Amino acid sequence: MESKTYDVAIIGAGVVGLLVAYELSKFDLSIAIVEREAEPGFGVSKGHAGVIHVVQPPFNSLKSILAIYGNRLYDKVSRELKVDMVRLPALLVARSRAQLALIPVIYAILKLVYGVRGFKVSIVTGEELRLLEPNIEGYAAVMVEGYSVIDSFELIYRLLDECRARGVDLLFNTEARGFRFEDDIIVIETSRGSIKARYVVNSAGLDSDILASKTGGSERIKTFLGVMLVFDTLQVKSIVAPLPSLRPAKTKGGGIIPTVWGNTIWGPSFTIVASREDRGVRAEDIIDVIRRFKELVKIKGRLIKAYSGIRPSTINGDFSISYSPLTKRIINLVGIESPGLTAAPAIALIVAKMLRDAGLKLVATRRAPHRTIHALSTRAKLALNPSDISGYDGVVICPCMRVSLADIIEAIKRGASTLDGIIFRTKLGMGSCQGQHCIGRAIVILQKLTGASPRSLTKNTSGSWLVEELRVDRVEE
Ligand SMILES: Cc1cc2nc3c(=O)[nH]c(=O)nc-3n(C[C@H](O)[C@H](O)[C@H](O)COP(=O)(O)OP(=O)(O)OC[C@H]3O[C@@H](n4cnc5c(N)ncnc54)[C@H](O)[C@@H]3O)c2cc1C
Hints:
28% of the residues lie in helices and 24% in strands. Helix 1 packs across helix 8 and helix 2 packs across helix 8. The protein binds flavin-adenine dinucleotide (FAD).
């Protein structure tokens, strides 16, 4: 590795690390992102529900305060980065006449908690509910305004493109393992040699506690699995969930969530798991989610996928954002679980302030970033008339999500080196047939364009090999 000393090294290219880098790249600084995987967003950030939340319990926690702050920043972030985001309300629905009695109680509680924080709360009658959400079975609802759904894949890759355009060095396949100090310089020992920086931000997601402990941090992470189900149709226009029951429930939280590109997510569930690697989707988790939401939706469409993510929670359940006990030059972001996507823009501003308080000079850069021309968003692409498309744009590889050869070439040009790198950038294989027609062709295109040996291609993380042996000459193009 070169002996350059960066002003700031950020460990972790999840949504938090990328937003920190994006915020800092507005100043005259040299910045590196150190990421152990081949691409960004392969940690906690790939397995969430894409909701920009409002208030979170416990209501005076740091994560609730930052969720509110982050929620408000997202209009600017999505506009600046041209990421698809849709503002919508959440509806807590009474499913029986007996539950109608709960409506005024829940309304009063939510008005007290959400209303004072600027989020409008109202009661929706049965008739209004049928007009708002004709596909939902219910007698009435409490509505909370101010939520959003966002194309979080687009967010990750547009942040990556912008950071690159603003001169941030992206060091992938590089695992941070420990720290040494040379006077005012922090030397990060990595799997590929050492990296020097004056300041370090540890935003390593599930492993942030391990890195924090290398310089005296004592926070520990416990892990909760969340399973989400994807349906191939748009079932709702709002986020919909059943009214909280007064009896203890087996499942916790989650909702029926429309995606910006036109399908629906149910979940997430909430299960304690012992290991950070334990991402398996179990039958009982799927049954739990189905049991929770099935009575609410009339026409469901087809269940096409179940996926999971692991929430990295601190022992007290709140975000921990602090200087390392050894030095204010290292900031540890530990336990950034849900609503971390929502809070991320606010966390980025707080980190910038903490770095300034620790002595880093933040002078607005005069360097104009290279202009980044973003590919068409999935939503815009799905709205195109197929007869208006020509050239490689007209060579459709994934018919369900209308992903063309041109989209895949563009994704590879922008750094996709794994199958998920292509999938997350283009939504290839995310439609009804779940990749039956396109995944094989995408692997061949990836192999041909990158020149990588078939055996070295991975789905995402290192070791997730795709094929034992791929005979490109036998695949019909
Ligand atoms: C089931 C589920 C549903 C969720 N739903 C929502 C939601 O709807 N709304 C919301 O606001 N939030 C939600 N969240 C929370 C949100 O996903 C996370 O808070 C957020 O993605 C955390 O991002 P991050 O950048 O901190 O972590 P990550 O995305 O995990 O990024 C950390 C990165 O650090 C890298 N790394 C780790 N160790 C090292 C090392 N030693 N060296 C180099 N790199 C390293 C990892 O590879 C990873 O890429 C959900 C979470 C889960 C699990």
